[in-house]
Design a protein that fits this description.
The structure holds two protein chains of two kinds.
Chain A: H1 2-21, H2 24-27, H3 41-52, H4 67-76, H5 80-115, H6 130-134, H7 136-145, H8 148-155, H9 160-176, H10 179-193, H11 200-210, H12 220-248, H13 252-263, H14 274-280, H15 286-299, H16 301-307, H17 312-326, H18 332-339, H19 355-378, H20 384-418
Helix pairs in contact in A: 1-5, 1-7, 5-7, 5-9, 8-18, 9-10, 10-12, 11-17, 17-18, 17-20, 19-20
Chain B: H1 2-5, H2 7-19, H3 21-38, E1 46-47, H4 53-56, H5 67-84, H6 89-98, E2 102-116, E3 121-133, E4 142-150, H7 157-171, E5 179-186, H8 188-200, E6 208-209, E7 218-226, E8 234-238, H9 249-262, E9 265-268, H10 280-299, E10 315-322, H11 332-347, E11 360-364, E12 367-370, H12 371-396, H13 398-403, H14 417-440, H15 442-448, H16 453-467, H17 471-479, H18 485-509, H19 511-527, H20 534-543, H21 546-560, H22 567-588, H23 592-611
Parallel strand pairs in B: 4-5, 4-7, 7-10, 8-9
Antiparallel strand pairs in B: 1-12, 2-3, 2-6, 3-5, 8-10, 11-12
Helix pairs in contact in B: 3-12, 5-7, 5-11, 7-11, 9-11, 10-19, 12-18, 12-19, 14-16, 14-17, 14-23, 15-16, 16-22, 18-19, 18-23, 21-22
Classes of the chains: A mainly alpha, B alpha/beta.
């Protein structure tokens, strides 16, 4: 399996290298769909220039990356193109290995369940076979590397690619069961953009599951491990924040990075839901609605963790998707990360109900973004409402996509415990309805 | 969520839609056409009104007195033009300077990709002369433009005369809060393109021009004046700009308001307004006016010198004096007063014109149809494509899997990505060939065939277009093996969705173009299958192909302009339209030619491919 993966990496790198050299390389970084105020390369360059002049990089209210990123690019800014390509490759390989390992676990569990005859007899067709699972890791890597969204994001040199790499490494470490590395990468991801904080719950659930510790409030082993993991996570987060402080010897970055993410002062249009809403709002409601919008991102963690506590990896997928839909400055690079997981849920295909509709809407919206942007900004004939309408539709489609996968996952689990052919009490064939 | 999640209701709805698919599609098509034709009916349209406050209530007085002197200047200009045999640059500079303007010149050269036979030019060399009247009352951050073309022969001399007369008169006034730029551009749009690119420091189409030495503020509005006789019977307003872009409706309202106030006959598309909307002839008059606008807009070319301003977010229109045999004549003084009034009102603007509509069609100068009213006509056509998609989904079996309980589930046998991808790639390669080859291969064609360069370009384009029709057989050979029943359905699914997105995007940018293409492409996209009678379907498909649509449009346009042409002339006109389309793309960056060649034509080829699926 190494050969196809290598080939895939070569193809992906070639596409990116060609695009870096083409005339598109100047156009793409200007697209608001691809870069946000948080991760635009232009702003990194500005920050580096300020740093070289001995001024705080946050002085001009342009730069909003974390201090570690700016020191990282301080050394490698000449090789930025290679760094971004390597970040994409790293993400793909990490996802590949993670999904491979995860599939092994799933298969082992399924075997035990079969041996214990826990599945109803008519569910045999729902059982996953090694044959169909063999290519899934490769498909995941392919979905990430060849996704136009990832390619655009990489060519724009959006630092979103680096955040994705960190999250992918976190997933890999979690799946491999290394709780220390998992905590460190989770802390790094949180340090980068706050929102991955919600991945704490699934990671903890997965590691507990791996150590056969039941989620039980009365058990001391549960509390012991939770404390241990929390401590590792908070400790590494603390180290990173302090390191940032010592690098710049000021706390400026806290308000410039995290304040910027949470209070959403920059209302440049993007594919998210914040900008239009807050541009239209009266100033005195702003604080309240910012709280509502931000809590919205974190809130789903609780119900989803309860519902999916047996399936932490699917929970990670759901969380990443929710973050990329509801975060304050989303770009297409964030979407690419959760879309890479779709092949891992291939077996849910038969239970998906709107996948075709949703994918058509997503495609149509992706083509309409530049058209309406042109009409609004260049031709001046349309206005922001047109663009926001498409943004809304795009996000509704994403939400439908995610909820469709969620429902399909639950339904498959339901069938695995209750049998595929459900009967009503009177014996007629029953159908499941979500209401 | 009920409809999306309840399988029973979904099944019922899908069943209903698939069973009634054909009648619903026919109904939608007819309704779309009827809706569109209904737009010209007066009770369904809105009366135009001035939305911009700054231009509405403020009173201005027009006192321009010097029409006769302007005509004399025009005659002097004509004499100098004849003497120099082109633009009399020195005379213009001197005259403008003597009228107290800051005068600058800009020279430009442009080599056309192939000779333009309509205007007989290939290597273009020229000079723009412009004078800036600095605003006495405000910081010079904004500007207005009045332009007149210096054209071949005896045309537009009066326009230049009037422009100079107005310059002199405006100089003596103290109201101006915006710089006024008086521009005389040579070689119509090519000169205008050079000047605008120079003004805005851009270079989109690779022209060669000297940088501008003087600038005013950011341009808020522009008018282009075309006047070829001493007296006129009516003024015609031209709105259609590059890529079908239109100026803000308030500019048209302003023109109409002043025509009413001063008592000048005004037309749009060369057609007077009529009051008998309830009679058949009245309706057909309005419909003709609107159809002319639709056809002009769909062509995507600038229909006057103002057309290129729109690209820079500047509201602009052309005003054309028409002298016909009508009794009632208007003299130059009156036109001068009209322009004075319009500039005084534009001078009052506090921000760019943005209050009124940008998307509209005009069945007459005092009536308009806004986007909300005309979009349903396109929507009804687009719905047909979506219904067909739904129908195909049921056949291909994607819908079944989530409609029913898993017991009746069958995994759709996927027809292989390769068999779908091959036709898609080949059609697009043909499109790329159609886009690039005509200009690249003109030299070779001229060497081997007895044709001129222009003919070579047009004929190569037509040859490649026709050669594309032979493709299905080649594609089939490449496929190695039988195309399956599933195969063409999936291909059609792809083609339908592609067409729907494509037409939707086109209609957003240029409604007219999108609607005309939808009118011809939607029926074939809807009915085409490999099982329809081959010869008949092939004939219908060719007759409704984008190229033939263009041919019909040429005839209809001539018919509507009341200058019907014979078949022979129509064909020649068709050829020149193609060459103009290619030139417009190369010179001004019009998007219609690349859109047709790179996207619409390949899409049509996909449908053609389905017909010959074996």
């Amino acid at each position: 399996m190494a050969a196809p993966l290598t080939l895939l990496l070569i193809v992906a790198v070639t596409i990116r290298a060609v695009l870096f050299r083409s005339s598109l390389a100047e156009l793409i970084p200007e697209r608001v769909e691809v870069v946000s105020p948080l991760n635009a390369w232009k702003r990194v360059v500005e920050g580096l220039a300020l740093l070289d002049l001995g001024v705080s990089p946050y002085a001009g209210d342009v730069f909003h990356e974390t201090p570690l990123i700016i020191y990282f690019f301080h050394f490698v800014s000449d090789y930025a193109e290679i760094v971004f390509m390597m970040a994409d490759a790293l993400t793909a390989v990490a996802l590949y290995l993670a999904v491979k390992d995860y599939n092994k676990t799933v298969f082992r569990k399924q075997k035990y369940a079969l041996e214990a005859e826990r599945y109803p007899l008519d569910c045999l067709e729902l059982i996953r076979t090694p044959k169909e699972m063999y290519y899934i890791p490769l498909k995941v890597a392919m979905f990430y590397l060849l996704n136009p969204f990832t390619i655009l994001s990489c060519v724009a040199k959006s630092t979103c690619g680096l955040n994705n790499a960190v999250i992918a490494l976190f997933i890999l470490c979690t799946v491999k069961g290394s709780s220390l590395m998992s905590a460190i990468f989770l802390a790094l991801a949180t340090y980068q953009s706050i929102y991955p904080l919600t991945l704490f719950a699934p990671a903890l659930l997965y590691l507990l599951q791996r150590l056969y510790i039941p989620v039980n409030w009365q058990r001391s082993s549960f509390w012991l491990f939770t404390t241990q993991y929390t401590f590792m996570y908070l400790g590494s987060l603390c180290v990173m924040v302090c390191l940032s402080f010592f690098l710049l010897s000021s706390w400026d970055f806290l308000s410039s990075v995290y304040g910027f993410i949470l209070s959403v002062p920059d209302l440049t249009p993007n594919i998210g839901l914040f900008w239009y809403f807050f541009a239209e709002m009266f100033e005195h409601f702003r604080l309240f609605f910012i709280c509502v919008f931000q809590i919205n991102v974190f809130f789903y963690t609780i119900p989803l963790s309860i519902k999916l506590k047996e399936h932490p990896i699917f929970l990670i997928f759901m969380q990443i998707a929710i973050i990329s839909i509801f975060k304050s400055y989303p770009t297409v690079g964030d979407i690419a990360l959760y879309m890479a997981f779709l092949p891992a849920w291939n077996h849910l295909y038969r239970f998906l109900r709107n996948i075709f509709l949703v994918s058509v809407v997503l495609l149509a919206c992706s083509t309409l973004f530049p058209v309406l942007w042109h009409l609004w900004i260049y031709a001046g004939s349309a206005n922001s409402n047109f663009y926001y309408a498409i943004t809304l539709l795009f996000n509704v489609a994403q939400i439908l996509l995610v909820s469709d996968y969620f429902y399909a996952y639950l339904r498959r689990e339901h069938h695995l415990t209750h049998g595929l052919y459900l009967k009503r009490k009177d014996g007629s064939e029953a159908t499941l309805v979500l209401k | 969520m009920g409809l999306l999640s309840d399988p029973n209701r979904r099944r019922a709805l899908t069943k209903l839609l698939t069973r009634l698919n054909a009648p619903i599609c026919v109904m939608c098509y007819l309704a779309g056409v009827a809706w569109f034709m209904g737009l010209a009916f007066e009770p369904f349209t809105l009366r135009t009104y001035m939305s911009e406050n700054a231009m509405g209530s403020t009173m201005v007085e027009e006192r321009f007195p010097a029409g006769e002197r302007a005509l004399a200047t025009g005659r002097e200009f004509a004499a100098h033009k004849k003497k120099v045999g082109g633009m009399p640059v020195d005379w213009l500079v001197k005259t403008m300077q003597s009228r107290g303007l800051e005068v600058f010149t800009q020279s430009f050269t442009r080599k056309l990709p192939f000779p333009d036979e309509n205007k007989e030019r290939y290597m273009v060399r020229g000079t723009n002369v412009y004078g800036i009247l600095r605003a006495p009352r405000a910081p010079r951050t904004e500007a207005l433009v009045l332009s007149a073309p210096c054209s071949e022969g005896n045309n537009n001399n009066q326009a230049v005369g009037l422009l100079l007369g107005l310059a002199q008169y405006f100089r003596s006034q103290i109201h101006w809060a915006k710089d006024i730029i008086f521009l005389v551009n040579e070689h119509d749009l090519i000169g205008m393109q050079a000047w605008l690119e120079g003004y805005h420091h851009t270079n989109t189409t690779g022209g060669d021009w000297s940088p501008l030495q003087g600038r005013g503020g950011s341009i808020q509005a522009a008018l282009s004046l075309e006047l070829s006789s001493d007296v006129i019977t009516s003024l015609d307003l031209v709105l259609e700009g590059l890529n079908g872009q239109l100026p803000n409706l308030d500019l048209a309202n302003l023109f109409y308001a002043f025509c009413q106030k001063i008592g000048v006959l005004c037309t749009i598309q060369g057609k007077l307004q009529r009051n008998d909307w309830d009679t058949t002839s009245g309706y057909s008059h309005a419909a003709q006016t609107m159809m002319l606008m639709v056809l002009k807009q769909a062509s995507g070319r600038p229909w006057g010198d103002h057309g290129l301003f729109l690209r820079y977010h500047i509201e602009a229109a052309s005003i054309r004096g028409i002298n016909s045999f009508r009794q009632y004549k208007t003299d130059t003084t009156t036109i001068g007063r009209l322009l004075e009034g319009m500039y005084r009102k534009l001078n009052n603007l506090l921000e760019r014109l943005h209050q009124s509509y940008f998307f509209y069609l005009m069945p007459s100068l005092s009536r308009f149809v806004s986007i909300g009213y005309y979009m349903p006509a396109f929507g009804l056509l687009a719905v047909i494509l979506l219904l067909q998609v739904l129908n195909l989904l049921v056949y291909v079996g994607i819908i079944d899997s989530f409609l029913l309980s898993p017991s009746v589930l069958h995994q759709p046998s996927s027809p292989g990505v390769l068999s779908i991808l091959t036709p898609v790639v080949i059609s697009h390669m043909t499109g790329v060939a159609l886009y690039t080859l005509p200009i690249l291969s003109q030299e070779m064609a001229v060497q081997h065939f007895p044709v001129s360069e222009t003919e070579a370009v047009v004929l190569t384009a037509i040859a490649i277009y026709t050669a594309g029709l032979a493709l299905p057989h080649n594609t089939h050979r490449l496929l190695q093996g039988e195309g399956t029943e599933e195969g063409w359905r999936v291909l059609k699914l792809v083609a339908l969705l592609y067409l729907a997105v494509l037409l939707g995007c086109t209609a957003l940018i240029n409604f007219s173009l999108g609607f005309i293409l939808a009118l011809s492409l939607v029926p074939i996209a809807a009915f085409i299958t490999p099982h329809t009678p081959k010869a008949l379907s092939a004939a219908i498909m060719v007759l409704l192909s984008p190229g033939c649509t263009l041919l019909y449009c040429v005839f209809v346009f001539q018919e509507l302009q009341e200058t019907p042409v014979s078949l022979q002339d129509g064909w020649m006109l068709f050829l020149s339209v193609i060459s103009q389309g290619i030139l417009d793309h190369a010179l001004y960056g019009s998007l219609v030619y690349p859109l047709l060649a790179l996207l619409i034509y390949p899409c049509w080829l996909l449908l053609w491919n389905i017909l010959f699926w074996k």
